[in-house]
């Protein structure tokens, strides 16, 4: 009977160690998704007025298109070595070299309906005074976000906008 218990104990131990090894491998695989150590996905912005977007994460891959405006927000959806797979506000995806991206937060104003203008308030409250009306596609610099509102600035405007009206910040994300 003791031999039987030893065999069962060894089988149980092997199964437990196998489960731990599988879990450790899965954890290592998950952390490998972020070679920078930063969370994925996350929003960043384009650092340069000339950013090549490639079909894959090497310079050997073809340039699919080129961004020509610094400051546009993009979402990093994956990392591979020094390359970042990004998605823009229109859903286009491709690979960009990491040094062409900035941690500076920007966002694009979205619209609820065609020809819609988004109010920019003087405080984080719909009862506040409307400081400006922003068209869809306007790029803003995000200063901070809390409680569903973001303080944004741009060329000739400074105020508060409802967070849901921006692409480039996550719902309920807090930015200081």
UniProtKB/TrEMBL annotation:
InterPro entries attached to this UniProt entry: DUF1058
Keyword annotations: Signal
Signal peptide (from-to): 1-21
Protein name: Aspartyl-trna synthetase
């Amino acid at each position: 009977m003791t031999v039987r218990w030893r065999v069962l104990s060894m089988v149980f131990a092997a199964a437990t160690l196998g489960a731990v090894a599988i879990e450790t491998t899965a954890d290592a695989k998950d952390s490998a998704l972020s070679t920078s150590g930063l969370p994925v996905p996350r929003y960043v912005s384009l650092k340069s007025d000339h950013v090549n977007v490639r079909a894959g994460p090497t310079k050997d891959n073809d340039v699919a298109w080129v961004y020509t405006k610094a400051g546009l927000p993009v979402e990093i959806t994956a990392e591979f070595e020094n390359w970042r797979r990004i998605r823009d506000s229109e859903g286009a995806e491709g690979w960009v070299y990491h040094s062409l991206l900035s941690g500076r937060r920007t966002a694009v104003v979205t619209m609820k309906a065609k020809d819609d203008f988004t109010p920019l308030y003087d405080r984080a409250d719909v009862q506040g005074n409307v400081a400006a009306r922003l068209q869809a596609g306007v790029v803003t610099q995000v200063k901070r976000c809390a409680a569903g509102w973001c303080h944004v600035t741009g060329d000739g405007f400074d105020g508060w906008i409802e967070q849901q009206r921006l692409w480039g910040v996550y719902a309920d994300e807090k930015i200081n």
